């Protein structure tokens, strides 16, 4: 490989307004991802729930919208591939468009749970605001099926999703990117706690 002709940017060329913004931003992320005893307990309880799900022959079902849907897909892949806990997420466009067309957007995930989940499964519901109707309705459906439920939310402390799970995570931030990054970080920590290692080969 040829050496790059680009020179590193000198520190003094950093825009001071940008630096101030990013210093504040990283500080927000640090505060949001800080793990206290309650978060330790939640991550440990998540591990126990996932292992119990596997022992019961169930699967961990991740749901979310937008960025949270991307996180749901990432977590499902890593939990299944790296931690050997069967997992999936509802991200198929044909399923979404079919069920949303037939039952409405607010109810499509609830019907996906009704059609695909089974006894022994665990639902992980991710919503940054904690107010997404389709997520709340899916959790209600999971409860009627007696599934274990783990919730991840943020923004306002009184959001309705925050208290609906057996294990509940809430991020004290009003920044969507900080909330989503923290959700993924905590759930990745839970996956690695199942594996028992922080470093392992991709394959």
From TrEMBL:
It comes from the Bacteria. Pfam families: SIS_2. Residues 50-201 form the SIS domain. GO terms for molecular function: carbohydrate derivative binding. The lineage of its organism: Bacteria, Pseudomonadati, Pseudomonadota, Alphaproteobacteria, Hyphomicrobiales. This is SIS domain-containing protein. It comes from Bradyrhizobium niftali. One of its GO terms (biological process) is carbohydrate derivative metabolic process. PROSITE patterns: SIS.
